[in-house]
Every structure is written in structure tokens, then in C-alpha cells.
Amino acid sequence: MIAASDQPKLDTGKKTITVNEIFYSIEGEGIHAGLPTIFIRMTGCPLRCSWCDTEYAFYEGEPFRVEHILNEIRKYPCSRVKVTGGEPLAQKNCKFLLDALLANGYEVFLETSGSFPIASLPKQVHIAMDLKAPDSKMEFRNLYENLHFLKETDEIKIVIASYKDFLWAEHINNEYKLYERKQPVILQPAYSILDPSMLAGWIKNSKFPFRLGLQLHKIIFPDQEKGV
Prior knowledge:
By secondary structure, the protein is of the alpha/beta class.
């Protein structure tokens, strides 16, 4: 954390964010899986993925001033914060929250569906962006131009529910030359829909350098839906 006297001055008293939950847990997904992380889950998402596991975040939540959010996360012994949802970028004040977190010395991560523009986001924010495969029923929401604004340290994830989804992932990987990125595209089996061992076999036989991703929080906390 940086000293308060060194922090840029932001008016955090008036801006509000509708928050579903704030909690401290273990990062369950992506290239940083296993690391202690504070999560800010924002309310709302215009997408309706067929395999969505956070439907409770569509509507549940209450407005918090950004300063209140900062006070809440200061309770935890951690400098890593992930802003997630829902779809965080669906709220107009999301960028302000990201700026405020950075100004307060946090290492900031953003999980987004990839259906909202990311070009104007702070470069210091680590982005974990989804691409929606056909079985999600939300493929039409992909903004492929976002791929041009991802940094080499950012990550791309595709949830795979079928072999059709896997073939689609191979096609997208080839079309956009995602195999040239420093971070391989993460393929994550749709929970309770696709057997992870099946996806592992497809990845082993693929000519592309995919990375298998599992949801650690569902392994560690199998009976807990929220707060993990």
C-alpha cells in the first residue's frame, strides 16, 4: 500500500457502485488461481449465459459510496482486489472504482465478459476477459475489437460446454492469432456440464497452446455459493 499522503486526490464520497457482495477468499480461476484476493462483486449483467453460476448477482445488491467500499476492503490483510460481477463494466462508475483502488495502492484485477469496451481502462488494471462460445448463447455479445487492447499480462478465458465450443475456441485462437500471446488462452469446463478430463484430452491433442483452467473455489468450497 502507498502512503496516504502520496495518493492522488479522488472525490470518493459522491460516486456510488451497486455492490452484490464484498469478501476475502482464494482466487479460484485464471493464471492467478490460488492467491488470496479481496473480491468486489458488482450487481447487474446484461448477458444471460446458459451456464451462469452467479445469477444472484443480476439484481441483488445495494448502492455503496466508493469511500465505503474502500473502508470495507481495508479490513482485510490483502493488497490484491478483483472487481467482478455480474458484469462490472455495465455500471458507469466502474472505471472510477478502478481508479480509486489504484490510487489507494491496491493491485487491481477486473473480470469482464468482453462485451463492453476496455480501451479506456487504466493500464495498471489486470484484465481477465471472457470470450463467449456458442453454447453460452451469448456469442453475439463478443466485442472482438477488445482483443486489440489487451496487454500481454492480461488473460483470455473461454468456458467450454461441448466439443462444438472447443472447435470454436480453436477457430478463434487461429483467426485472431491468440496463440502468439504470452499468456495462453484458458479453457475452462462449464461446471457440472463438461467433464474436465474430457476437455483435458482435447487440449492435449490440439495444435494450439491452450491452458486448462479449473474453478478452485468450487473444489475447496463445494457447498458454498456466495462469498467464495
